[in-house]
C-alpha cells in the first residue's frame, strides 16, 4: 500500500501534463512570428486567444456553445439509454441478438457523417437531425461494449447469484453491474463521437452552434474567430472527457486501486 | 425464522429420509456434441451420508469440478440422477451452497453487502439478516472489514468472505471447488482448520474438490479418488482416524500412510 501524494504534489504532477500543450502553443506562435507561415492564413496564437476573450466577453461564443452542448447531451443520453438496454437484451435473449447483430454489423463500417445529407432532407435544418446523428453514431460503441461486457461476465459470478437465490431480474441486475466498467467505456467513446459528429453536421448545414460558427467565420476569412471557436470545441471535448472520467471513477470506486 | 425453529427443522429433515445425504446414480456427462464430444464423467456412482465431509480427489481434467457443478445444479444433468434430501437436482438451489476457487464475490458490493445478498433474496427480515451477517462476519473474523470491497482484501480474507456469504443462506450442503487452491500455504492451513471447525459446529455435508492429496486426507471423512479421460471414481477410501481420539502419534502415522497410499495411486493414474 502506498501513501496518497500530497495535494501540492498532485497539483504539480497534473501541471506537467500540460507542458506539451504549452510547447505546442509556443511553437504555433513562433512559426507565425518567424514568418514560416503567413499570418493571414494562420493567425498567431496570442491573437486567437485575444479574440477568444473578446467573443467570450460579448457572450456570442457561449450562445453557440450552449446550443451545441444541448444537442450532444440529448443525443448521447438517448444513445446510452437505448444502447445499454439493447446490449443487455442481446446478451440475455437469443432472438434479440440474432435480429440486432447483423444490423449493427451493417452500421459499423458506415461513416456516420455520410448520413448528414440524408438526415437533413428527412428532418430539416433544426436540432432533430443533429441529435439523431449523434444518437446513431454513439449507439454503436455503447451497444457493442455493453453486449461484450455483459456476455463476458464471469460465469461463476452468475452461478453464485443463482446459488444465492437471485430471481431472473436479480440475475439481470448482477449482469448489469458486472458489465458496468465496459458500459462506461462505451459511453466514454460515445462522448468523443458525439463531438466529432455534431461539429461535422453543424459545419455542413447549420444555422447555429460551434460548427456553424467555425464554418461561417472561416468562409469569411475571419480566421482568428474561427480558431477561437475551434479551440473552444477542443476544450469542451477535453473537459467532457475528463468529467466522464471523474464520474467513471466514482461509480467504479470498488475497483482494485 | 428464529434460531429455535431452524434447529427444529434441521432436525426434522434429518429424521425424514435419514440415510439420504447426496445420492449420485449412473451419472454420465459429455461436453460438446457428435464426434468432438468428450466424455467428462462416466457412470459415476456415489452416496454421501448426512453430515459427511467428502473429498473429490483427482488430477486436473478428471471431471471432479464437473461433478460438483452437476450436484450444484449449475449444469443440467444429461444421463443418470442426483438426489438430495430435497429430491432430484435440476437447478441451483439455496440448499446447496457453493464456494469457488476464485471466490466470485460481487466486486461492487462490500463484504457485508455480499453476505446480505442471499438473505435479501430469501426475504429474511432486515433486523435478522443484519444480525446474522454480523455473527457470520465475526465467525470468519472479518468484522473489521465489513465495509471493505473485495478488491481491498487479501485472498484468504476474500475466501472467508465467500464462505460467510454461502453460510448466510444456511445450506444443507456445502460444495467447495478447490476453495483454498489460490491461497498461500500458511493461509491455506489456517483456512483448513477453520473449515473443520465450521463443519463440526454446523453438521453440514461438505463436498470438497481438491487435487492435493494431503488436503484430502487431512479434511475428508471419505475420499473419492477419480481418474481422468473418462472421469470415473476409481475407489473410495475412508479416513476414520481424522475423527478418532487416538494418540497423536498413531494418528500421524496413519495420516502419512494414507497420504502415501493415495499418492502412489494418483501417480499410477498419471502414468496410464
Summed up:
The complex is a heterodimer of chains A (257) and B (272). Chain A has 257 residues and is an all-alpha fold. Chain A has helices at residues 7-17, 19-33, 45-58, 60-92, 94-107, 116-123, 127-151, 155-163, 168-204, 210-219, 223-251.
Walk me through this protein's architecture.
The complex is a heterodimer of chains A (257) and B (272). In chain A, 80% of the residues lie in helices and 0% in strands. Chain A has 257 residues and is mostly helical. Chain B is 40% helix and 23% strand. Chain B is globular and about 55 Å long. The A-B interface holds A 154, 156-157, 159-167, 170, 174, 177-178, 180, 252-257 and B 69, 72, 74, 91-94, 96-98, 100, 102, 104-109, 117-118, 121-122, 149-151, 165-166, 169.
Top keywords for this entry?
heterodimer; A: about 260 residues; mainly alpha; about 80% helix; globular; B: about 270 residues; alpha/beta; six-stranded mixed beta sheet; 8 helices; 10 strands
Task: Chart the SSEs and their pairings.
The complex is a heterodimer of chains A (257) and B (272).
Chain A: H1 7-17, H2 19-33, H3 45-58, H4 60-92, H5 94-107, H6 116-123, H7 127-151, H8 155-163, H9 168-204, H10 210-219, H11 223-251
Chain B: H1 3-15, E1 22-31, E2 38-48, E3 53-57, H2 64-72, E4 79-84, E5 87-88, E6 96-99, H3 111-121, H4 126-139, H5 155-167, E7 173-177, H6 185-202, E8 205-210, H7 213-219, E9 222-227, E10 232-238, H8 248-271
Parallel strand pairs in B: 3-8, 3-9, 6-7, 7-8
Antiparallel strand pairs in B: 1-2, 1-4, 4-5, 9-10
Amino acid at each position: 500500500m502506498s501513501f496518497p501524494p500530497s495535494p501540492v504534489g498532485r497539483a504539480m504532477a497534473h501541471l506537467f501534463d500540460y507542458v506539451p500543450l504549452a510547447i505546442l502553443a509556443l511553437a504555433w506562435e513562433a512559426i507565425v512570428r518567424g514568418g514560416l507561415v503567413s499570418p493571414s492564413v494562420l493567425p498567431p496564437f496570442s491573437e486567437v486567444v485575444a479574440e477568444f476573450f473578446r467573443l467570450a466577453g460579448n457572450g456570442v461564443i457561449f450562445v453557440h456553445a450552449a446550443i451545441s452542448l444541448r444537442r450532444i447531451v440529448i443525443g448521447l443520453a438517448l444513445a446510452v439509454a437505448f444502447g445499454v438496454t439493447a446490449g443487455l437484451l442481446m446478451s440475455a435473449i437469443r432472438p434479440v441478438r440474432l435480429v440486432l447483430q447483423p444490423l449493427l454489423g451493417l452500421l459499423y463500417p458506415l461513416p456516420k457523417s455520410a448520413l448528414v445529407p440524408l438526415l437533413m432532407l428527412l428532418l430539416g435544418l433544426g436540432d432533430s437531425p443533429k441529435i439523431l446523428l449523434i444518437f446513431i453514431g454513439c449507439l454503436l460503441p455503447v451497444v457493442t461494449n455493453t453486449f461484450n461486457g455483459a456476455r463476458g461476465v464471469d460465469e461463476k459470478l452468475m452461478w453464485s447469484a443463482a446459488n444465492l437465490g437471485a430471481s431472473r431480474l436479480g440475475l439481470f441486475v448482477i449482469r448489469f453491474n458486472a458489465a458496468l466498467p465496459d458500459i462506461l467505456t462505451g459511453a466514454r467513446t460515445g462522448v468523443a463521437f458525439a463531438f466529432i459528429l455534431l461539429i461535422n453536421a453543424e459545419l455542413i448545414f447549420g444555422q447555429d452552434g460551434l460548427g456553424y460558427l467555425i464554418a461561417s467565420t472561416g468562409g469569411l476569412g475571419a480566421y482568428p474567430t474561427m480558431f477561437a471557436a475551434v479551440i473552444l470545441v477542443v476544450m469542451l471535448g477535453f473537459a467532457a472527457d475528463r468529467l466522464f472520467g471523474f464520474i467513471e471513477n466514482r461509480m467504479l470506486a470498488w475497483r482494485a486501486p | 425464522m428464529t434460531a429455535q425453529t431452524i434447529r427444529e427443522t434441521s432436525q426434522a429433515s434429518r429424521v425424514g429420509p435419514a440415510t439420504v445425504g447426496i445420492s449420485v446414480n449412473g451419472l454420465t456427462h459429455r461436453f460438446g456434441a457428435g464426434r468432438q464430444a468428450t466424455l467428462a464423467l462416466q457412470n459415476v456412482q456415489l452416496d454421501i451420508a448426512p453430515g459427511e465431509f467428502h473429498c473429490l480427489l483427482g488430477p486436473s481434467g478428471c471431471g471432479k469440478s464437473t461433478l460438483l457443478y452437476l450436484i450444484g445444479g449449475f449444469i443440467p444433468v444429461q444421463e443418470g440422477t442426483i438426489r438430495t434430501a430435497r429430491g432430484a437436482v435440476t437447478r441451483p438451489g439455496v440448499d446447496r451452497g457453493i464456494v469457488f476457487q476464485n471466490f466470485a464475490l460481487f466486486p461492487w458490493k462490500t463484504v457485508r453487502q455480499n453476505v446480505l445478498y442471499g438473505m435479501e433474496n430469501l426475504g429474511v427480515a432486515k433486523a435478522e439478516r443484519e444480525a446474522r451477517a454480523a455473527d457470520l462476519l465475526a465467525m470468519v473474523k472479518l468484522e473489521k472489514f465489513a465495509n471493505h470491497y473485495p478488491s481491498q482484501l487479501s485472498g484468504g480474507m476474500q475466501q472467508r468472505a465467500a464462505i460467510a456469504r454461502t453460510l448466510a443462506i444456511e445450506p444443507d450442503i456445502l460444495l467447495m471447488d478447490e476453495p483454498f487452491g489460490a491461497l498461500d500455504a500458511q493461509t491455506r492451513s489456517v483456512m483448513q482448520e477453520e473449515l473443520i471447525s465450521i463443519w463440526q459446529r454446523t453438521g453440514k455435508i461438505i463436498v470438497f474438490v481438491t487435487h492435493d492429496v494431503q488436503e484430502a486426507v487431512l479434511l475428508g471423512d471419505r475420499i473419492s479418488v477419480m481418474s481422468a479421460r473418462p472421469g470415473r471414481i476409481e475407489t473410495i477410501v475412508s479416513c476414520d482416524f481424522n475423527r478418532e481420539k487416538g494418540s497423536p502419534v498413531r494418528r500421524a502415522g496413519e495420516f502419512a500412510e494414507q497420504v502415501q497410499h493415495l499418492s502412489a495411486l494418483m501417480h499410477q493414474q498419471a502414468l496410464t
